[in-house]
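Exercise 7 asks you to align residues with tokens for two separate proteins.
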Amino acid sequence: MNKVIVSIILFFSPAGASYSSLDAILAPLPDPIVLAEDVAVSEESYSETTKVVEKPFFPITAADLREAISNELSDIMSPSTELTLIPLRTLPDLSNHSKPFSLRLISYPGRLSRANMLLRFQVENEKGLVGEYSAPFRAHLYSNVFYIQTNLKAGEIAAASDLEVRRADLLVESSAIPADPKQLERHEYSRNLNSGRVLQWADLTERSIIKKGEVVEVNAKSGLLAISTRAIARQNGVEGDFIVLRNLDSNKEFSGLVVSENKVQVKFR
């Protein structure tokens, strides 16, 4: 038991003193008498006030480690889609170490591929270096892409209504077209396509705004002189293409620049 000395101060007035006058009221107080009293304080209550509160322990789990490795590799590779890493063996057991922690990749491949990859990494927490480790992984880049839902013919204008959206691994379907309707604008199917497979970039070609055999308007300019005529397109053409045409009157062939729908521009001297 610890003992604390408590001082009790008592003031006594002289016997028979009267406070009937102002002088008596203002008179100095007598010297105090101090009495000492032992007050017991338990050791238990004393120890409670001095007990150190321990910091909570949050172990580093395998899921924490996997997420940190994926985030670190994503920051380095900067993929445009979701990167998922699948460990091919059990990750190091770091449950004896507490979070928060930081992870740094020491070695990694130059690019993502379908091949298995070995990643080396270093882990630290607030106590310092935890250790250096390595583990094999397989990477997946998942994204929403277009799949063909009905048979299509070459030359048809590409439309989102012909397609359905599915999730695919771009490391497997590397030529898959992202499910963005803007990717289809001004495009047509370059070949006959069967339903059920992923739509690839090779399945599309820029849409021809002039078709072979169509009669088109031809504008010829030279300085301030401008002449308009009509001709037959001898081949398909997209904007910016030079195509061969045949004059309706002379049957002579010449070339012109496709500038818009059914319009060709020719320059002459």
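Second protein for Exercise 7:
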Amino acid sequence: MKRKLIIIIRKLGLSMLADKCRFHLHKIKYRKNISDFFKTNDGVPMPPAYFIYETYRLNYNGYYFGGKETAQELAKTFSKYVDTSNCRILDWGCGPGRIVRHLPEILPASEVYGSDYNKAYIEWCSSNLKNVKFITNELAPPIDFQDSFFDVIYGISIFTHLSKEMHYAWATELLRILKPGGILYLTMHGEVFRTKLIDADKLIFDKGQLVCQTTSKEGHRTYGAFQPPFFVRKLFKSASEIIHFPGTDNNGSLTQDVWIIKK
């Protein structure tokens, strides 16, 4: 029944309205979690509640401490492919800074940048987070960086909210601003997310084609894109090396595919 209701909401173009209602319900549900976080973490700058919900979920401990753990894991992974003692790193689609805020402490010798098309996120980050250079990009490229500027560019669940046109445009643009020998670290909706699709979309996915749920605003969390491995390999066919770590299904808890693309 829940799945059928979601399909009806999408067909009626009410995904964003329904998501706003869900946010207000979650704000009531998790009010103790929010209150407890500030009691023990007074002075920690946190984005507005809707920013956190829109880019993560209303679990403040998970947002802050989980973001730090993810940043540590990313830094460890990056070090396997590039010299992180002196490099430039871009969080492409940084949102309100859940992960990137922690990287200057973890990799103090590196230059850290964050970009997002949501101007409100970037304004908040620029005013509240230190030692990261933030810029606003548009939904479509270009982005204001010179060729071969970054050693590492990562995007956590960014392509998962973009159209086919934007997949190709951003794949080209990210490779443009990446140094030779640098890496892209990207997460996407792979095989384990096939279960989220209706039967007609499963047929498209099984042919190795991108599936987009286009009844919402592109770039928003309610706009979904699903990437079969064949499509991703085709998208980055010009790369010198492509490494794929498939997502997993842990009793219904799905993790995204991780792609490491070397220029």
